[in-house]
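Fold it.
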Amino acid sequence: MSSSPVFSSRNQSPPPPTPPLQPGRDEGDGATVVERQPQKTEPPRLYQVLLLNDDFTPMEFVVMVLQEFFRHDLDTATQIMLKIHHEGRGVCGVYTKDVAATKVELVLAASRRAGHPLQCIMEAA
């Protein structure tokens, strides 16, 4: 006689089927395998730093600010200064939020030290 059980409809029902493996499950030792999901990160939002025109700050000081804090050459700084003078505002540069906020604070501090009312702001680009 054979030692393996014989299943027939008369004496017993067959064992239940083995459930299919679930994703992330390893058969046997109970360990879980986790698959890495690629993270979807967006680039940081950018902000433009602007200087606003006033009737008191000398043009030379505005050009110096553009050169010192925004690293523009003399010709570019002069063009931006003229744009500020004629249009009331001009973009000095576009940066991430923290860098833009730091530039605004540096410009405001320098203009106050020099005794000028120059206004510098940032807005979403």
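The longest helix spans residues 97-113.
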